[in-house]
Amino acid sequence: MSSFFTVFGGLAIFIYSMQLMGEGLRGVAGQRLRSILHLFAKNRFVAILTGTIVTSLIQSSGATTVMVVGFVNAGLLTLKQSIGIILGSHIGTTVTGQIVAFKISGISMPAIIIGVIMSFFKQRVVKKWGMTIMGFGFLFFSMEIMSDELHQLASNPSVHKIFQTFQCEPVNGVMPIGATFGALLIGIIATIIVQSSSASTGIAIVLASNGLMDYYTASIIALGANIGTTSTAIIAALPSNRVAKQAALVHFLTATVGVLLVIVTFWWNVGGEPVFFHFVRQCSKGASTGRLIANSNTIFNLVTSILFIPLISVLVKICEKLIPVESEKVHFQYLEPHLLASPSIALAQTTAALQMMLAKAWTMVDCALSLYCENDEKNQRIFNQLEKREEDVDARQQEIADYLSRLMQRQLTDEQTLLIPMLLHCNNDAERIGDLTFAICNIMDRLQGSGHRFSPEAEAEYVSLHKELKEMTETVIGLLYQNTPDAIKLAQRQKQHLSERLAQYENDHIQRISKGLCIPDIGLMYLELLEEIRKISRHLTNITDRAGNFYNSIGKTYVESGITLDING
To answer: How far is Cα 460 from Cα 433, in angstroms, rounded to an integer?
Structure first.
């Protein structure tokens, strides 16, 4: 019994070590890796290489594909662009198996000691490297623990018999069908449970290296792990849009079809064994059992990924047929929950959501200001929806605030931490612009009830101010999409000019009232409108100032989301 506890303890340390390595590497290079995933997805060959490198570094194809699903759901990647990364993740995930196949347990303790020492450093990058090195040490330490006990258990007839239940060793060069699919199912289920194909494959290598499993059985379990790991992306895609679901389906189809193609070769005999295993053995002359299993997993993923490269367009059509998009307009979730794992991109996505919210708030204000002299059919249609639009803007404000609150719970750099309050303030400014709609509507309602209009001078001033405010809003919305020093200067000039015009027109109108050129009550309504325009200008100025600081901070990390907005509603 103590032997089993030791084995399971070693297994627990093994799984923990992989999590530790992955978390450490994500902490060291996670932001850059996620940016790279997006930036290099446009070319299918570069995308495959990128997916391979990123997955091999973060030790998880599941984590890579979840990021891809998040990008697709947020509109940052198309389905076609995502496929290359997904194929690359299949190759990258085999690196862990190659590492496990090494027998270098002598470095486990030095690595653990170095990792623990580095974890005491205050610098975040050093601490994360410490986690990675410590995880590496624990990986080989766990293998040493399991190997010692498994070697003894292998000599126990009862234990050995249990592991022979799904023995897949060929009989007269032919694979047993029942055992083959049984081992495949074990690999699938084990991976779904531990949520890591690397862990399942690593465990199979350890078992086979200690005589409890043959090369063929362990390799088939590793094949099953390739299918099982797709469950992570499928779960992540469940609440996402249909294009993101299509990306998860691609992950499942490529893994499953690839495994089935290889299984077909199991009954094609060459040199006394199935052609696939014969090919692996020929490519791994003199290799240990563990290395043979690792190589079979690498060769399988490498070959199948290459086979799917020319079929990417076909895969897109198949997925679009199986999971059709029901309408031409796909709803992209810019505040994508899975992107919270990448704070830099999550912050950039927040600005995209803020841009949309500001555009919608301005549509409301523009409608209210147009009630005086441009109240056409389109404007009336927007006016009839103002309450619904106000609820939508309020909901967006809450969503952005909630998203940023969740982001604050992640591990952020000092710079990123400072950006969140700034975005929260911008969020509030945009929402308050929408709120001012009803104050303007109230003034317009009173003006209409009076049966009077502004004086010709006041009317011309009002039209001019409305136009200037609209131009300033267009500039500020553009700043949230692509920020440049020239755009900031333009927004500041527009604000200064509008402020001067407001002061001048306010002074001129007071003089007209004092000279009896305007009806006092109507004149006061005009002054109230000037004050509402001034409030909107102040909120826009606040956003302009903070947007400049935001872009100076995130710099190259910002990724344009491709959003196009019509600020006219």
So the answer is: 24
